[in-house]
Amino acid sequence: MSIRFEGVGKRYAEGREALGGISFDVDAGEMMFVTGHSGAGKSTLLRLLALIERPTEGRIEAFGQDLSQLRRRHLPAYRRRLGLVFQDHRLLVDRNAYDNIALPMVLDGYHAADIAPRVARALEQVGLGGREFALPSQLSTGEQQRLGIARAMVAKPRLLLADEPTGNLDPKLATEIMALFVALKEQGTTVMIASHDLPLIQRMRKRTLVLDGGRMIDDFHPEEWYGRSL
Amino acid sequence: MDEVSEPTAFGPARREPRRAWARSHLNGLRYGAVRLWRDPWGQLLTLGVIAVALVLPALGFLALDQIDRAAVSWRPSGDLTVFLAAGEPVERALELADTLDARPEVAKAEVRSPDDALAELRGMSDFADALSALDANPMPALVIVQLSPAGAARLEEFRQELSNRAEVDWVQVDKRWLERLESLLDLARVIILYGAAILAIAVLLVVGNTIRLEISLKRDEILVLKLLGASDAHVRRPYLYIGLWYGLVGALLAFALVYLGIYAVQPAVDRLTLSYGAAVEIGGPGWRGALALAAYGALLGWLGALVASARHLREAVPR
């Protein structure tokens, strides 16, 4: 078991409840989608796992560790085990594509000689080969999204959290990116994708959590997809 | 030792935390230098304040050092000067010197005859012509006494004993003025130290404020770095090196200002000292002083950046 949510809730200071009573387990190397309408709590769920926010109730366990007990000084090491894809990309605007992708490996202390070939391969895999010197401002929104995806995958994280990773991509590219996520999963990375791209989710036929108004209303596994639609 | 991680979709990779740490320091050092190099005029106000805050105590300590050194060179040859009564022959001085030489309180006793004393006075003053006009030598015979540690320990008692001798007119303690000067220099040292401490706080505040602005400009980047797992130390490092460079360059400016000050003051010192028949060359801080000033400036810059970055980076939490 890789991740466990036990009665997790998130209520903001103004009283709004973003999530409530969420409980589920995810196995190591499992790939799953989290879907629901806007405001259903998909992004909040991923943010809780990335410890960008803390739950106001319940308990989250990741890799055998209770995240509520995680000390501040251990947070960077935990985050270095994650790959994060953000809706707003969160790229370093004054660094080129190569440096943006290399960042997680640099932070994790990888051998300099090993960084270059892996970054080059990551660029190729997301279709940005030859654009290593481009600044984010010189890339289209879709290219920026792919840059963010390459950055999230390059250091082979234990857990990849992707928030609407295909939102700005055409269907063909979206499918290619999904294939990359599947390849990563095959190597043991747990992959959680928040998406409202229902056709894509249906095509992928992976485990899917359905949220509505901050509550989990469904959780079905690949074998339960037969005859179902979202 | 490198840590070898398993092969991945992107090929095998090794971790080398120590080398990565060293590389991160090197990058920080370079980043700080480039930051200053790209916009030196934009940083002039900060650098100027740092330089002024460093140059004032540096000049103060330099002046004290000069006075201290000059005081040592002006120091009389003995610890006590025993003036024999007028009319006492030089033989009495020789007898007294022999007697004193045998005493444990005395390291050395030397006689200066009235003729020697007059010749010395002629050489030291502008009254040579007036002294030549005198019918008789008015100078008494002297015994210059260098005390042993035992004598120095009971200086006042020994002085009293010598003063009570019939052939002795009076005894001058040569060290007393030096002790007074030392006390004055000590007082000046404390005042300069206090001023230096106040100015050091000013440097900390100026560097801290500059780093605060720097951090606020780079806030988005800092948040991304934190999200990707950068440690606080990693995020803080470039800002510490910016502080260090500010301090270092400020110290170099201060060093230049010290020499400018010496250059400006030397003619006035020459005029003053020549009127006393001496010549004093003001020595600069030298390479050791330069190194000490640079280290002090760099340390202050680093500390200012450390305090500011610790506070402002703690407040930068990804949302």
* Proportion of strand residues of chain A: 25-35%
Average pLDDT for all residues of chain B? 84
CATH topology of the largest domain in chain A: Rossmann fold
Largest sheet of chain A: 6 strands, mixed
* Structural class assignment of chain A: alpha/beta
Question: Structural class, from helix and strand content of chain B?
Answer: alpha+beta
Oligomer: heterodimer
Helix run count of chain B: 11
Weakly predicted, low-confidence segments of chain B = 1-12
Outline of chain B: elongated
Task: Give the helix/strand layout.
The complex is a heterodimer of chains A (230) and B (319).
Chain A: E1 3-11, E2 17-26, E3 31-36, H1 42-49, E4 57-62, E5 65-66, H2 75-80, E6 82-85, H3 97-107, H4 112-125, H5 141-153, E7 159-163, H6 171-186, E8 190-194, H7 198-204, E9 207-212, E10 215-220
Parallel strand pairs in A: 3-8, 3-9, 6-7, 7-8
Antiparallel strand pairs in A: 1-2, 1-4, 4-5, 9-10
Helix pairs in contact in A: 3-4, 3-5, 4-5
Chain B: E1 3-4, E2 14-15, H1 17-38, H2 44-74, E3 80-84, H3 90-101, E4 106-112, H4 114-124, H5 128-132, E5 142-147, H6 149-153, H7 155-163, E6 168-173, H8 175-217, H9 219-227, H10 232-274, H11 286-315
Antiparallel strand pairs in B: 1-2, 3-5, 3-6, 4-5
Question: What does this protein structure show overall?
Answer:
The complex is a heterodimer of chains A (about 230) and B (about 325). Chain A is of the alpha/beta class and about 230 residues long. Chain A is about 35% helix and about 25% strand. Chain A has helices at about 40-50, 75-80, 95-105, 110-125, 140-155, 170-185, 200-205, and strands at about 5-10, 15-25, 30-35, 55-60, 65, 80-85, 160-165, 190-195, 205-210, 215-220. The longest helix of chain A has 16 residues, at about 170-185. Chain A is globular and about 45 Å long. The mean pLDDT of chain A is about 90. Chain B is of the alpha+beta class. Chain B folds into two domains: about 20-75 and about 180-315, no CATH class; about 80-175, Alpha-Beta Plaits, CATH 3.30.70.3040. Classes of the chains: A alpha/beta (about 230), B alpha+beta (about 325). The interface between A and B is large, with 41 and 31 residues.
